[in-house]
Predict the structure.
Amino acid sequence: TQLLEQSPQFLSIQEGENLTVYCNSSSVFSSLQWYRQEPGEGPVLLVTVVTGGEVKKLKRLTFQFGDARKDSSLHITAAQPGDTGLYLCAPYSYYGGSQGNLIFGKGTKLSVKP
Amino acid sequence: DTGVSQDPRHKITKRGQNVTFRCDPISEHNRLYWYRQTLGQGPEFLTYFQNEAQLEKSRLLSDRFSAERPKGSFSTLEIQRTEQGDSAMYLCASSREESYGYTFGSGTRLTVV
């Protein structure tokens, strides 16, 4: 069973601050996705990263896939209250894990206060 | 494209009753997934279909749970003899292939009393 850890579990910041959340595992991933989930709704896909070392930007969000494809980070610049939600990393693993489905971490619950 | 639809949004049932949830995926998506999410946790994989074939089932899916996708379109998830531990959000998602992003529905919130 692969272990997937997201940190921090909870993060409460003021509007305008920067933050970084992390997703780590001992397993190598073929690709990894980040989702954001609001209360009472399903997760919404933000980005897919595939290549080790890859960096993708989505407005104020910057996603990075580790060189060894075992970890990823999400950096938010100048956070806004609309960024509030549960951020989930979800890798695909074809190196001993189950195939054909995403494995989700517990997520980082972000609260951005105005 | 109306997204992934799940019905009902909320279900309250008494322990021991059977419940059935429905998921209508995006029409051109051939893969359909069921996940379960409890408070403070990320979604946990239950099962998935490629077209009408159920290709994988998690060990979380006890023999009280059954899922079908008879014509490769909509899917149903049935829980028999519900237990309080079955209380959770049941999420359905669909995708074109495994490497594409999933589109999730809004989920069915099940409460077993």
